[in-house]
Specification:
This protein is an alpha+beta fold and about 150 residues long. Helix content is about 35%, strand content about 15%. Helix 3 links the parallel strand 5 and strand 6. The structure holds zinc ion. Zinc ion binds next to loops.
Length: about 150
């Protein structure tokens, strides 16, 4: 068996297994290869080298070729999370004002038009948070410790 990285005209990418390269060409020419996401039949082979299913080959450290995708994702996850958290934090910091323990109060005043609308960040107790929700004030809970260093949490 041979696996190709395929893509459709909508840029969905997926793997396709075939007996041989010729088998892919033949099936594709007959319109038998279809995108699993959108059922598109305008399928092209990606330029990356096809992987052969030869079993216990040492996986290349860099490309991870031949490794199941789930393993790759699990391996990347801590870095990805740290990266996203950092970006998330910068975004929040750039777009909100730190009101600390005054969060519920300020959020309410904004909600009832007593104060100018703006992004704020701060801390609330679980009770305050559900009280705000009941008043129709939506807040976003941040992961614990993200803003620990500036005393928000
Ligand atoms: Zn598609």
């Amino acid at each position: 068996m041979i696996v190709f990285n395929l893509s459709c005209s909508q840029d969905h990418t997926f793997d396709g297994w075939f007996r041989s390269a010729g088998d892919f060409d033949a099936q594709n020419a007959r319109g038998l290869v279809e995108c699993p996401f959108c059922s598109d039949r305008d399928i092209t082979k990606q330029l990356s080298a096809p992987r052969l299913n030869v079993g216990a080959k040492e996986p290349a450290a860099e490309s991870g070729a031949g490794e199941p995708r789930e393993v790759m994702a699990a391996f990347l996850l801590p870095d990805l999370q740290a990266h996203m958290l950092k970006q998330f934090k910068s975004f929040i910091q750039a777009n909100t004002e730190n009101v600390g323990g005054q969060f519920a109060e300020v959020a309410r005043r904004m909600h009832y038009g007593e104060e100018k609308h703006r992004g704020i960040r701060g801390r609330v107790s679980a009770e305050e948070s559900s009280a705000l929700r009941e008043e129709g004030i939506e807040t976003v809970s941040l992961p614990n410790g993200v803003f620990m260093d500036e005393g928000v949490q």
